[in-house]
Amino acid sequence: MWAYQPAYVLLDGVAWRCPHCPPFPSGSLSASCAGVAAAPCRAASPTAKEGPMRSYLGYGQAATMPLVNRVGKVSQPLIRRRPGIRLSCSLPNAHRIKEDSRIGILGGGLAGLTSAYYLSKRLPESTQIIVWEKADRFGGWVQSSRVHDDKNGASLVFESGPRSVRPKGLAGLISLELIRDLKLLDSVITIPKTHPVGQSAQNRYIYTKKGLQKLPSSVFSLIRSLPKRPISLIPRAILQDLLSTTEESKTRSIDDESIQEFIARRFGDGIGEELISGMVHGIYAGDYKSLSVRSSLFKSVWELERRYGGVIKGMRSSDKEQHPSDSNEEDKLRKTLDGQLFDGLVNCSVWGLKGGLETLIVALRDWLAKKPNVILKSTESVESIEPSSDSPSKVTTSLGAYEQIDHLISALPPQVLHSCLSPPLRNRLNDLIVNPSVTVGVVNLAYRSTQRINPIPPAFGYLIPASIGAELNPHRVLGVVFDSDMMPGVEEKRGGEELTKLTVMLGGHYYSKQLDSIPTTDQLIRQASQTIKHQLGISQDPFFVQAQIQKDCIPQYLVGHHQRMRALHRLLHPFNLSIVGSGYSGVGLNDVVKSAKDNVVNLLNNGRSTGLESFDT
């Protein structure tokens, strides 16, 4: 593995550190800025108007000035003052996206389609954009199916992937902006928090040995509830959390650990096995003992510990502070959203789309199909790619086509991308294959009745934690979603009878431990039906049921994920390859859309983007 040194700029015979460019690998033939690929960092004089690097060092500022010898190795830095000059850099025109460039996108799921969308909005029609998709449909794991019920004329929608979206934070606003720009506002279903349906969407239960118990709606609400318990029941770790100092916490703070280790250290073992593992089942279908706390939904509480010395203490302190908006971009985006739309969404628990979330995929596909410079290729996969730092990349497809592409964006799962890389680069990017992905069985069921058959009040559904053993959960069910409760109105047409829709999710990390025992779809249907009868007491048979095995559908961010992505970013920076999708920066729909947009913005602004810039901290 190469060691990394800062990038340096030669100015008047002196090497100055470039503060904007990522590090470059030591041992190269010359001090080289990663921002200009393999070309040496050459600076024009302070008075020059043009040049690959324009260098200025602010008046009165001290600059770290390492000397560079003939083979690019850096000696001990010296401190020197240069009045009236401030360091900055600009990419040479050779690495900007040219108007006649060809951009290739590997994968036609949500990340690939949104990447193509943002590119086509910002680039001229002389730039060709090609999207390759292995399957005969676009959309990846976003998949909605329609079923017509001849008996009562109902048209039912079932989701095999995501089914609702939370309009939270900058990522949530970016998704809403996309919905607006695609003219899908008339298809949006908003579930207000104050509405009974909205309250049901926030009501989540957990299956325990004593039956179903209500689960806090978020990580913060879970932790806030702990000090309200009788003092005798508060784990010693909570008292330590409240009494510890910031300095003590920073002393023992580490870069990353598993969710289980973090929760046990801060709050004791009890809530982890009972509650946290169930929450992790619902989001990642994963094992909380192996997933990274820093790269999961628990990142916010991990940051509170580092900043304030304790989680509960940090929540109290942060509540009292007047924080500005998360970013200027979020402020600007809020202003551009239609007032009526935003007013309706500010009190929204979740939102969905009529016809299911695949409505978004169809809108993206149709929008792109109308663009003369966008080529959508289904049933054609990419077999091999050879990214380059200073010339077009070589792409070979399953149909034997050979393409030369100026910039590649991979929206493939990390393991698939790794298998497509040419051997020299593949061997350097083994961090792509550290994180596994889990397989989930998804079973949709529909029941007819004249009254509500679900024995518990309207809710999002329930999760089954790791503490429930095989005697109560023999089929390794992760959770059950009450589709009829949490997203009514998704069907464009419903009959007069009461219809109850449920989705059962099975397997995940349990299947990873027993790869030879993944059930067939028929077995999944039997297992799901038995689970519903046993755990909910619904004795009648469903009038409709379908099952799918979603192979390797959810990436598992193992401990150390942030550090590995930072290393990947620095390795990829010289190449004309970006990586986006759920394998890197978040598994949710909002995360995927935001990562695709951020990558396109970075690419067009800087001429280079890895898609992993957020990890370079």
UniProtKB/TrEMBL annotation:
GO terms for cellular component: mitochondrial inner membrane. GO terms for molecular function: oxygen-dependent protoporphyrinogen oxidase activity. Its EC number is 1.3.3.4. Its cofactor is FAD. Gene3D superfamilies: FAD/NAD(P)-binding domain. It comes from the Eukaryota. PANTHER family: PROTOPORPHYRINOGEN OXIDASE. This is Protoporphyrinogen oxidase. The lineage of its organism: Eukaryota, Fungi, Dikarya, Basidiomycota, Pucciniomycotina. The gene is hemG.
